[in-house]
């Protein structure tokens, strides 16, 4: 049954990137349909054990969208990042600690459980979008003038722009014929949370070993952190099979006692590590957002921050098209969006890919070079500040929703 509604944009996908996109459009005055399964409440969500460290500009966006106040009590400030070479290499790099205070900031960003973030964003979106369809899209038909989407219960929606935020296997990307290349690393990550005896003091610890890393990120409780354990797929399988006590003991050992005794471990889930890149972020009547457009290894907290920048930039491009009285899904708008996102997406995707490969490598000259860089970072505060700024800020102008004080 075809539904006649006066909506000209559909956002497909109810992950954090899709929800932020729908909210950003609604904030700009667009009438939007949001399509995708309703997320489970946080307390009943055993599968998504990930947390996301959201950088300052992402937090500014959530403030502008009116959701930050509700989220803040569940978010832990990230005051410092300590990087430790635990590779046992001949050229062991010295520890490096980046402190937010060196940039005059209280925190680099805030760490929050994905499931909590999604729950708050969905609640806000449900009250802000013009239509909510809690179902999967089964078919997407694109013509030069419009897009027709068929949902699982048979509802059909006709719009002028589809924002495809439907993740790794995006049906929107496929319908638009946008080619994607996926690179596997033979690695996987375990994401979980744990309680520890020593306080984290707002410090995230990255321990790099040859072939993997263990990264802890503070949670709101001073004695609890989330952890991302990256290793080759076989090792991850073994670690996943450990019982809770065995996992806690192995984690404590891997952390070299840095957070004291590991007491309690939460649910564990496993995520494949891959890089996915698309040739463009826009196709006929379609703009891709978040992991539908790019997937990075979870190093340096970049993935969702990049997805939120897609969302905010797309809202700006549609806003510009509307100001000119134009079509929100025109080729002109879509090219502007692709151009605006290209440099940021390419530099992050390939930068993290390079970093990931260099951490995997046992090649001695590369390890020696990393050691020299670490010495330089410790000796030269301006270099350290530059690296911190590059990690936090995109190489292009921030979209309007991400500028400090944006309304
Ligand atoms: C271990 C780990 C740690 C991470 N840590 C960080 C971090 O600290 N900081 C950071 O910025 N990033 C981090 N990331 C990356 C971040 O988790 C992802 O970038 C983010 O969750 C992706 O969100 P998304 O909305 O693009 O995709 P998804 O969360 O995959 O959402 C896609 C949505 O689309 C829906 N969908 C799929 N198909 C359809 C369809 N046909 N119709 C309708 N809906 C559909 C799905 O149900 C889902 O809700 C981490 C990733 C991992 C693996």
Structure characterization notes:
By secondary structure, the chain is α/β, with parallel strands linked by helices. It has a single domain, classed as FAD/NAD(P)-binding domain (3-Layer(bba) Sandwich). The chain is 35% helix and 29% strand. The chain is built from 11 helices and 22 strands. Strands 6, 7, 14, 15, 16, 17, 18, 19 and 22 form a 9-stranded mixed sheet that branches. It has a 6-stranded mixed sheet with strand order 9-3-2-13-21-20. The protein has a 4-stranded mixed sheet with strand order 1-12-11-10. Helix 1 runs parallel beside helix 8 and helix 8 packs antiparallel against helix 9. The mean pLDDT is 89. The chain binds flavin-adenine dinucleotide (FAD). The site of flavin-adenine dinucleotide (FAD) has 33 residues, from helix 1, strand 4, strand 14 and helix 8.
Task: Please describe the structure with a list of short key phrases separated by commas or semicolons.
11 helices, six-stranded mixed sheet, nine-stranded mixed sheet, binds flavin-adenine dinucleotide, alpha/beta, FAD/NAD(P)-binding domain, 407 residues
Q: In total, how many domains does the architecture comprise? A: 1
Looking at CATH, the homologous superfamily is FAD/NAD(P)-binding domain
Uncertain ranges? none
Bound molecules: flavin-adenine dinucleotide
Shape: globular
| Mean model confidence by pLDDT | 89
């Amino acid at each position: 049954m075809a539904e006649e509604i006066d909506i000209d944009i559909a956002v497909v996908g109810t992950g954090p990137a899709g929800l932020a996109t729908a909210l950003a459009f609604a904030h700009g005055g667009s009438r939007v349909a949001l399509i995708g399964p309703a997320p489970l409440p946080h307390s009943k969500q055993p599968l998504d054990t990930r947390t996301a460290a959201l950088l300052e500009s992402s937090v500014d966006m959530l403030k502008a969208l009116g959701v930050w106040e509700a989220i803040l009590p569940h978010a832990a400030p990230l005051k410092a990042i300590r990087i430790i070479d635990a590779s046992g290499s001949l050229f062991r790099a010295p520890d490096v600690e980046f402190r937010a205070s060196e940039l005059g900031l209280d925190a680099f960003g805030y760490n929050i459980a994905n499931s909590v973030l999604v729950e708050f964003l969905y609640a806000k979106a449900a009250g802000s979008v013009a239509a909510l369809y809690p179902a999967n899209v089964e078919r997407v038909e694109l013509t030069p003038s419009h897009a027709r989407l068929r949902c699982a219960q048979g509802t059909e929606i006709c719009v002028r722009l589809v924002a495809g935020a439907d993740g790794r296997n995006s049906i929107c990307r496929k319908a638009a014929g946008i080619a994607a290349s996926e690179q596997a690393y033979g690695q996987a990550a375990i994401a979980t949370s744990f309680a520890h005896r020593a306080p984290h003091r707002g410090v995230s610890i990255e321990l790099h070993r040859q072939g993997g890393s263990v990264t802890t990120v503070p949670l709101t409780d001073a004695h609890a952190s989330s952890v991302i354990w990256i290793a080759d797929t076989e090792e991850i399988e073994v670690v996943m099979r450990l019982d809770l006590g065995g996992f806690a003991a192995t984690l404590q050992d891997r952390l070299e006692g840095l957070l004291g005794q590991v007491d309690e471990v939460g649910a564990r889930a496993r995520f494949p590590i891959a890089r996915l890149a698309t040739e463009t972020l826009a196709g006929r009547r379609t703009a891709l957002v978040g992991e539908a457009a790019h997937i990075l290894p979870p190093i340096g907290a970049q993935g969702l921050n990049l997805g939120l920048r897609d969302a905010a930039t797309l809202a700006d491009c549609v806003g510009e098209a509307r100001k000119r009285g134009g079509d929100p899904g025109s080729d002109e708008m879509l090219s502007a969006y692709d151009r605006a996102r290209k440099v940021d997406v390419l530099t992050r995707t390939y930068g993290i890919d390079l970093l990931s490969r260099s951490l995997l490598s046992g090649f001695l000259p590369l390890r020696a070079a990393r050691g020299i860089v670490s010495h330089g970072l410790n000796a030269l505060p301006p270099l350290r500040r530059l690296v911190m700024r590059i990690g936090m800020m995109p190489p292009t102008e921030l979209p309007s929703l991400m500028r400090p004080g944006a309304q």
